[in-house]
Design goal:
Blueprint: H1 2-21, E1 29-42, H2 46-52, E2 57-68, E3 73-87, E4 100-115, H3 116-119, E5 126-140, E6 156-170, E7 175-187, H4 197-202, E8 211-224
Length: 225
């Protein structure tokens, strides 16, 4: 787990170092954006949903404030709210049936953003941006799965990291539209389901996957000051 977070920190640090090598020309601005879109929840219990024919898709909304302090480099703070779905690991237990549950999340991330058009000193209205960041999430309002021994824990705090890409089009009067795609990786407690003593006993010490993963595709509007 420590190695994974060190890799994430290294990605962010590398982008910061790249900032020092980009043009020194100042072109600072603030951008506020609202976005929403679908997400797919990929946990250990992905296999339960795959076997059931049910959907792992849900939705998320986000509010962001970005500060571009160089032509090619910016920093974004983003707050997220979403509804998630999960299920107990029936494909890895002897209990038949489908045991789904739902929960909500709030999360906050800080991202370093690399503007590819800025690197090329381009003034194009269409821009591709790459980002990497770290943050934390709080999950709550879990429903009961009904599984006989796998217990879903309510109210969980977990650390996370992410990296992704943004496609953005800016209009002359400050308004913009964008789409972004990215995975988020959280520590295992995010979805409230960690391997129990019963799981460890029945399945030869099966530890579960160490990360809970979400894939997101967001669409939004922005305004640049």
């Amino acid at each position: 787990m420590k190695k994974i977070f060190l890799v994430a920190i290294g990605l962010v640090a590398g982008m910061v170092l790249l900032h020092a090598e980009t043009s020194s020309e100042k072109k600072s601005s603030f951008t506020v954006s609202l976005s929403a879109g679908p997400m797919v929840n990929i946990y250990e219990n992905y296999f339960s949903y795959a076997g059931s024919g049910k959907s792992l898709f849900s939705y998320q909304t986000a509010l962001s404030v970005e500060y571009d302090f160089r032509r090619a480099i910016g920093f974004r703070v983003q707050a997220e709210y979403g509804k998630n779905v999960g299920a107990c690991n029936v494909m890895e237990t002897s209990v038949g049936g489908f045991y789904p549950y739902q929960f909500q999340n709030i999360a906050g991330f800080g991202d370093i953003i690399l503007d590819m058009a800025g690197l090329a000193s381009s003034s194009s209205a269409f821009r591709i941006k790459l980002f990497a960041g770290a943050g934390a999430a709080y999950t709550f309002n879990f429903t009961d799965s009904g599984h006989p021994w796998q217990k879903v824990k309510d109210k969980n705090a977990s650390f996370g990291f992410r990296l992704g890409a943004i496609a953005e089009y800016s209009f002359p009067f400050g308004l913009g539209i964008f789409a972004e795609i990215y995975p988020e990786f959280y520590t295992d407690r995010y979805n409230g389901l960690e391997p129990s003593d019963e799981d460890m006993k029945r399945f030869d010490g099966y530890p579960g996957f160490p990360l809970d993963i979400r894939g997101l595709m967001m669409f939004g509007v922005s305004y640049r000051f």
